[in-house]
Amino acid sequence: MSEEKIKLSCSGLNLWFGKKQVLKNISIGFPENKVTALIGPSGCGKSTLLRCFNRMHDLNPDTRIEGKLLLDSEDLYNRAISVTQVRKRVGMVFQKANPFPKSIYENINYGLKINGIPSAERPAIVESAIKESFLWEEVRDELKKPATRLSGGQQQRLCIARTVALRPEVILMDEPCSALDPISTLKIEELIRKLKEHYTIVIVTHNMQQAQRVADKTVFMYLGEVIEEGVTDSVFNRPEKELTRNYISGYFG
Amino acid sequence: MQIRARENFDRTFRMIFRATGFLVIAVLGGIFIMLLYNSIAFFVKVSPWDFITGTQWNPSGRAASYGMLPLLVSTGIVTLGAMIIAVPLGIGTAAFISEYAKPGLKNILKPAIEMLAAVPSVAIGFLGIVIVGPGIAKITGQSNGLNALNGAILLAVMALPTIITVAEDAIHAVPRTYREASYGVGASRWQTLIHITIPAAAPGIIAAVMLGVGRAIGETMTVLMATGNVAAFPRGFFHSVRTITSTIAIEMGEVPYQTTHYFALFAIATVLFILTLAVNLIGEYFVNRFRKFQAA
To answer: Residue ranges per domain, chain A?
Structure first.
């Protein structure tokens, strides 16, 4: 673990929704080409933290953010960097699969178009993105069909393909499997393990088994604070803090 | 005993409300039958073909002619003009309120727009005579500005509240997740609005436009005051026109009872009724599609 490079990090991060402080002095780093899981009970700020990294909170005028967030050594909140650039480099997969009400092909093509990729290059990128997401075999003949006809698991993989197509550096996943059945979940997890060869992945999950199955590193949060972080195996098997031990053994949460 | 009383109470009110519900349907049907009944009396005298395709409306001349085409085209021109003005403005305003306006501004804009709908049509007619008319006259060098364009502008003002309110609801109802997905791939607000939010809200927006059209077609007092009311065949936006509604309003008071002319007015009213009914049904259809889409 010592020689790993930190791809994405924050230090001294505080966040308020109106008057309520949701994140308290958070400092963590996410290692490159690794999967990091954020776990903790509902409302502990996992998703809120995740959304800081692609500036999704910009949309909410009530939010106030303090602290430093870095991608490599670049400040994500630097005024000189456009928010659309940030979101292209830091992609996001949401809790509920949210394909656009368009065709399967258009769902991926849209992001490419928006980001000014020449139309001649797009079909190849769309195809490879769908392949990377292990969806190609299932949809190769149906690219013109509405994405909403796909099953929940397929929709979520399409959303991952949509993110991957932009060649982001980091992929944030906000409980990507919470609405899926076990088989679809397994497929997504398999996909996550493959994706980490090329991307740095941060995943929020409520499912402890899932964290243990996919994550290299695990961060336990409680009431807006990071309680414990470390290699997944040691966080789950040899937790240092009482709170962590209680949570992972199911006393609360 | 108490339970019995409550059940009776319940039953009584259910009957009352059912009765009022049926009454609405009965009134609608009654109006249609009344129009149709009187129209038939007209079509006994004048062939429907001549009535629809005739280019001259001159019921009081020596050789009376009952061609409704000029009226139909007048209504069409004024409505079309109103929509050309009101649709882009309405959708734009709706998008602004829903996507861009800060809560403070929104709280002023929304009631203000709803209040615009409450302005009586006669008052809007004054606006046409006092401000819009002279304005058009000045620009075009005509002696007065009472023409189709004037009517279209006023009808646009009247249709705007309907269009904005319904379109805003439709845009606002687009799931947040669509917008997030779009922002998530790096789209700007504008790109998200144009490529994702408005297409997703399209059925609702079409419904908004249809309801606006319905409002414009049926409006009487403003067009009567502002369009000049010349029953000649309309030649464009800068000429006086006379719509179906204003023709009925002008002539109904003067016409001798149960003459061909009298029945003719029922016939054009029937055409108007069918027209607005069709537009409203189309609007309803899209509203329903929109609801289904939301549920999915």
So the answer is: 6-248
